[in-house]
């Protein structure tokens, strides 16, 4: 197997498509968002990218094995622009793998004539979120203006540590290829899988790209997560001294 | 030395052979199983595979040194199909090594016309085993059907973490070469070398491939391991408070 | 992207330039010194060096992303020799990256006809510094003589652990290319960013190379750091038992 | 710089030389032994081997820097066979570096017509040594017989963990090139630099290869080390309860 190996499964014509990336990361925000698109819209598996920089691993699906890979699905919705959705269960395991895979992903994008790249992800805030802002970073000021008009928030020097991994490199290497690229980062606590943050990111993307999806299943997953959080909080309260006890101390 | 270096030691003709892999892993199940085949059946060393991804190490056997390698033995038993048995003391030390070595192993397999691959290993359950199920994963449904008929158990999405290392990649890369491959994973606690699990795996393989071996030496090793477990349990009981003491506490 | 990728942004003629390197390191001494030169003197960005051995990362500056890189600025001051200043936010992440990047940096230097290399850095002493000596190491005795005349201190077998990273390799690989190279290492505690140490290094370089810069902004940063140190010491004193208490114990 | 880079400094004719390797390792036994040969016998620096797998580092010797490397000295003593002595301060930092450097070292050896390789090192016993046995491992039985006649001890399956690093690979890769190679491993506690173990190894080598060196300086270093050990033991006794106290407990 080559270091980076692109398997061609189908070659549909796409019209001015955008590339939408959602690989695993903070709060699984990007991955949830990309997978939601694939669940809600008709899609066709068009490419698999294998790499010796992925974990040496197969996953078991029913009875058969699937080699670690990233997948591209073509989505041609009735409303909005065509999309090439990049998803998967793995990130590269080293720096050279991140660079090489991102180059391979952009090669696939260029095969399909991709005109813009959207890297979806989460940005950790360290606390529970009430209102889910979506932070942005781009390769051109013109792109930033358009995103700002759709509600994306740009804050100076944020995220402070930059953007790491494939999402960041899609901007860095995209810019070097003159492909406009943006990173849409949903705020998220960073502690839990966060379907609400994924929905916030998708709603921005929907406004920019123009598809039409239902968010019911994502809202259900968000409710499930809130139930989990509620139970954790309950357990913590039972272990902590009761408020009554604490009040008494202050009175007595 | 090349990154992956195949040394040719003999080139016997094999008839429709199967490749049986048993490198070190969970409970040493695969390694014990492969080595048992080589002890019980006549075999000939046909290939050694060296790699700069193996540990930089020689082992000392009597007075002379043997460079880290994986070995292929040809086994042509009276009963059952010819086998190419892959064994050794080492795994690759990084992701690229796992991919490259598995490709080299499949190259050797194709040299000998291998028609099916069986990767032997263990799957950790975290608790002591009474009845040793053998879990399976394959590259084709047809292969899975045949294995199920021989008693292999297929459970949805198990093992949950997928299959890591050479055993997993023999399926993943085998499938890409159109070589049917299966992983037979004996259940094992994961804490100890497990000859019983190795025997369970071999009994399945025996049914599928058709050789005839005696299990006495493996049963003796299993008895030795049970003696070890018994002694550990005794020591733990002596350190724990006696049940009598605990009862008294509750009464008093 | 290539493993090491030099982007040409401008190609001014420089007269007998010296290469001045200030990448991140102990006390950020070299980085502060190089950045101070670029703030105080007119400069032009001439090269960016990208590498798959840098972290897979973009930094966000205002709204747009910048791929991890090292930058060369050409500085042609009225007084003193022309300079090629190498700065950046990253070091390579592995040994091969350090070697390869240093070779790429020397390639850029040779493109511009660099005649001497000055690697700027800090040397940790483990204690707060009163007087900031600047230690030296070079590739030739003649170069060492000149530096000693400018106040650089040479101590036998110091630094004891040698010089690690790009600064060290600029000497090691520079020597192999017959480019005279020196490392100027400002003493620094090693615990804090140290603008005073950076100033000490620059004052030596000023004497050797002949530029004329103002140190006010560096002195302001040094004052800020001293304020930080003062506050830390105050907090430590409040937590420690007062000397009075301790005396009493001995008396009572 | 190439991944492995051999610098030619001199090319004297050597007659049927042996290669003697003493790089850093357990108890610095091999390094002490090789350096003792170079101190006691006339030698000429003939090769330096650089590698991107060495640490990215220069060492400072007086005022000038020396890039991390391994050195070959030619030794043509009046008595005994010519020798090519390999020494240095570094080991490779990864598995591929160990393999590649050992291949480069054997290339240099073959340039000079080396007929036998002696890898010198220590084998840790975990306790202080009274009598310093020298363990052996070789590539051929004939070589083992000769070494046994000179007092080398061969113990079945020892060292249990095999031999790791360049010393081990000189045997493993030497055997693949049909160059007889042996590892001479002086027993050593493994906790301290051990000049006595180095002397034990050299006395064996002296018997096999036939040189004549004085051991006074090595004995002085051994005395210094014993003084260090004595002081450590004293400090430990002062901290431990005195033997008198312990006796009383048993009496009372």
Automatic annotation (TrEMBL), chains A, B, C, D:
InterPro entries per the UniProt record, alphabetical: MJ1210-like, Proteasome_assmbl_chaperone_2, PSMG2_sf
Entry GO terms, CC: proteasome complex
Flavoprotein as UniProt keyword: no
Annotated source species: Haloarcula rubra
Protein name according to UniProt: Proteasome assembly chaperone family protein
One Pfam assignment: PAC2
Chain segments carrying region Disordered: 233-252
Gene3D superfamilies assigned to the protein according to its UniProt record, in alphabetical order: PAC-like subunit
Entry keyword annotation includes Ribonucleoprotein: no
Record keywords: Proteasome
């Amino acid at each position: 197997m080559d270091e980076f190996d692109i398997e061609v499964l189908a070659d549909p014509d796409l019209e001015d498509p955008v590339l939408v990336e959602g690989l695993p990361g903070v709060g699984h925000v990007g991955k949830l968002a990309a997978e939601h698109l694939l669940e809600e819209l008709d899609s066709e598996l068009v490419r698999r990218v294998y790499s010796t920089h992925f974990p040496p691993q197969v996953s078991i699906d029913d009875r058969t094995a699937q080699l670690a890979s990233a997948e591209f699905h073509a989505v041609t919705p009735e409303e909005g622009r065509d999309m090439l959705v990049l998803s998967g269960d793995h990130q590269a395991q080293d720096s050279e793998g991140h660079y090489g895979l991102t180059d391979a992903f952009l090669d696939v994008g260029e095969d399909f004539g991709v005109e813009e790249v959207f890297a979806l992800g989460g940005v950790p805030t360290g606390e529970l979120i009430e209102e889910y802002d979506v932070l942005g970073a781009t390769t051109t000021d013109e792109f930033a203006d358009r995103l700002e008009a759709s509600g994306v928030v740009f804050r100076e020097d944020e995220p402070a540590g930059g953007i790491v991994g494939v999402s960041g490199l899609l901007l860095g290497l995209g810019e070097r290829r003159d492909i406009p690229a943006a990173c849409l980062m949903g705020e998220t606590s960073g502690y839990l899988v966060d379907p609400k943050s994924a929905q916030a990111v998708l709603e921005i993307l929907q406004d920019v790209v123009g598809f039409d999806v239902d968010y019911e299943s994502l809202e259900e997953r968000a409710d499930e997560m809130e139930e989990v959080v509620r139970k954790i909080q309950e357990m913590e309260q039972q272990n902590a001294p009761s408020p009554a006890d604490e009040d008494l101390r202050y009175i007595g």
